[in-house]
Structure formats: structure tokens, C-alpha cells
Amino acid sequence: MSTSTTPEIQNRGFHFRDIRKMFGGAQSSLRQFGIFGSLIVIVLLFEVLTLVRNGPNGATLTPGNMINVINQYSFILILAIGMVMVIIMGHIDLSVGSVAAFVGIIVAKSMAEWNLPWPLAIVLGLVVGALVGAWQGFWVAYVGVPAFIVTLAGMLFFRGANQWIGNSQSIPVPKEFVYIGAGYLPEVALPLQFNVPTMALALAGVAWLIFWEIRTRRIQHKMGSIMAPLWVSVTKVVLLSVVVLAAGWMFATGRPGTSFPVSGIILLALVIIYSFITRNTVFGRHIYAVGGNRQAARLSGVKDRWVDFFVMMNMSVLAALAGMIFVARSQASGPGDGNGWELDAIASVFIGGAAVAGGIGTVIGSIIGGLVMAFLNNGLQLLGQGADVVSMIKGLVLLVAVGIDVWNKQQGRPSLIGFMMRRRGRPDGPNLTDYPKPK
Fold first, then answer.
1. Are 232 and 22 in contact (CB under 8 A)?
2. What is the DSSP code string of 124-149?
């Protein structure tokens, strides 16, 4: 009797598991899908509320507001990318806001007083961020001081260092540097009523979605894996393509002189890079392994101290980049930069589905969680609410989102956040056993 290696393609009738496969199924985490649904509800709710308040059109889904959201919150989303790796490891970093401010003041002074060209100033900022991260990573990985204590000390030290170096004054930055935080994709001299590079970027995104889906199905076919029906793949690609093209059109048709922000381009690049690192590299699997069970990972040969060190250093490098983008957008570095950034980044990661105990979380989920916080801030401001109300609502959203999720798990029920992304009972993220052993 011979066995067939042809992959099973589900051509039977409709099943709910087909919908699950449309959003990842057993092939990837669906934790971000539940949060993504919450994000859509929040955006539509504020669109309706601003329509009722302002009329005749809502103020949320407008080109100007969408551009403003990316410009205002791109640095928080960049911090969330690094913070999710820290939290997966079971650590926390309270110093990111202070590190960002510390690097920002050094970069601003290097251009204003030392006449350093802005490209070299950016390199200097990244190097300073790496040195700060190496310092904190050393204490966490090799001395054994808990990251909470190390970064709390860093928050205090680098906040004071920012004010000491800058004499508690604002230092302006040159116009060329401002481009990375407040610039847009350039216009093309064509008789069109939209920004061509922005739409080209959206079309490239659609092409990537199509390529990735085809590639995934080919790999599944080659490995003999169970494949979802073709209609599932087609429907998923069509829905995501519509979202990408609609967003691209919105950014491309804003007021003259604006388009997709440069800070958004930097953010997209980082999301792609770090999603690949955490999902498709040995180092990424080591992060999840150490966060899930440090002792087991150590017995498996994982150098957990090195992983701790690199993750903490990487966080400070991203904090340095976020600080420079904020300074560029503000056109000056000041003593109040970075206040509360660590709280927004941590909240984004937990709302995005990361586990408090570590071992679970995704870059995409954290970005979606950050967008939830961003649109909460933005929508409440559009409705005329003050900072006090915004802060209270953000705190309640974080508490309810994590509290309900934890309570459901304690009761043995599917997590409201994690229900639709369970990978047959396995934790979110890559696992050392996810990959077939060589024959």
C-alpha cells in the first residue's frame, strides 16, 4: 500500500475553520485579528461620533487626520516594535522615553553646536542608543539585576542627563533633519490629482500580498501540508488589497504638499524587518523559547544571556530612532521630550495580545495595539475631550482588555483576545518545534 504525499485541499462545504485560515489559522497567530476588529470598531465609532458632533462629514476618516495620526504616533509604534521583544522575554523597559530624550538632545546639540552633518548626527544617535542598550543589557544579562530595576534606574538617570546636557532648554535642529519626522513622499510632475509615489507604494503592497499568498500555498503544497480552499486565499487577498488601496488613496489625496509621511515609511520598513526576524530566524525562535521557558531553552543550547543582552540593546536603539524622529517632527529637542512614552509603548504591546508572563506576542499585534491607542487619543481629541479624560479612558481600555483576557484564561475559557488565534492549543509565535526535522 502506498501513501500519497499530495497535500489535502479542503474542497468540501463551508466550515468555520476556513474563516480561521483566512486570517492565519494554524499557519500564523491570529491574536492580532481580534485586536484588528477592535481597531475597526473604534475608528468607525469615532467617525460616527464626529459626524454627529460636527456634520456633515466625520473627521476621523479624512486624509488630513490619517496623515496626522501617523505623524503623531509613529515614534510610539516604533517603540512598540522593540518593546514586544522585551516583553516576550519576560522583561519590561521603563527607560525608553528617557533614552529617546537623551539621544534627542545629543543629536540636536551635535548639529547646532558641533556642526555635525545631519546624516552623521543620525549615525551618532544610533550609536549612543546602542551603547546605552549595551550598558543596560549588561546589568540584566550578565549581572542578573531585574530589567525592571535596571530600566527604572535608566529612566531616572537619562532623564536627568537630558536636562543636564541641554541645560533644560530647547535646541532647534536644521531643516534637512526635519524631513525624517515631518517630511512626505515627493510629488511627481504628472497631471494627476493624487500623489503618485504614495499610490505606487500601495500597489507595491498589494503585489506583495499576492506574492506572499502564492508563496505560502506553494510551500504548503511542497511540504504536503493541509491547504485552505482557494476561495479562502482569494477572499483574504482581495479584502486586504481593498484596505491597502483605500488607505493609499486617502494618504495620496490629502492637501497639496502632503502624502504618506516619511516616518511612516521608516515604520513600515521596521515592521517588515522585525516581523521577519521574530518569525523566520533562529534568533527569533530563541526569543520565544527563552520567554516561554528559560530553563528548557537553556538546556536546549540557547544562549539566553546573549539573547537578553541583544534584546535590551535593540530596544534602546529603537528608542534612539524614535527620539530622533520626534525631535525632527518638533524641529527642536526639549527637556520634556519622551515623558510617558514607555507607558504608551507597554500598553500597545499588551493590548496587542502579549502575555504578562512572556513567551507570547507579535510585532503586527503590537502595531495594531498601538494604533488602537493612537485612534483613541485622536478620536477623543476630535470630540474636544481634555487630556484628563483621554488618560482615564486609555487606562480603562488597557485594564479591561488585559483583565478580560486573563480572567477568561483562568476560567478555562477561550481568551477573548486569543480565541481566534489559537494555533491548535499552542502559544503564539514561532516555536522550536514548528519546523520539520531534517531527514
1. yes
2. HHHHHHHHHHHHHHHIIIII---HHH
281: which residues sit within 8 A by CB, 6+ positions away?
none
pLDDT of residue 248: 93
Q: Are strands 171-172 and 332-333 parallel, antiparallel or unpaired?
A: antiparallel
Res. 396 pLDDT band, cuts 50 70 90: confident
Calculate the dihedral angle through the C-alpha atoms of 102, 105, 107, 113, rounding to the nearest 10 degrees: -140
- What's the grid cell of residue 410? 483562568
Residues contacting 353, CB < 8 A, separation 6+: 29, 31, 32, 34, 35, 360, 361, 362, 365, 369, 417, 418, 421, 428
351 C-beta neighbours (distance < 10 Å), count: 29
Closest CA to 93 of 289, 317, 293, 264: 317
Long-range contact pairs involving 219-222 (C-beta distance under 8 Å, separation at least 24): 220/7, 220/27, 221/7
Rounded Cα–Cα distance for residues 231 and 18 (Å): 9
Alpha helix stretches (DSSP H) within 260-386: 262-280, 282-292, 294-299, 304-330, 341-351, 363-382
* pLDDT above 90: residue 173: yes
Give the residue-averaged pLDDT of 63-92: 93
Cα–Cα distances (Å) from 254 to 46, 198, 301, in that order, read 20, 11, 53
Contacts of 319 (CB under 8 A, 6+ apart): 79, 82, 95, 96, 97, 99, 100, 103, 129
Residues facing 9 on adjacent strands: 227
CB distance 367 to 80 below 8 Å:
yes
Comparison of pLDDT for 341 and 220, the residue scoring more = 341
Contact assessment for residue 369 and residue 345, using Cβ atoms and an 8 Å cutoff: no
Does 428 have pLDDT greater than 60? no
pTM of the complete model:
0.85
Number of C-beta neighbours around residue 422 at 10 A: 18
CA 235 to chain centre: 25
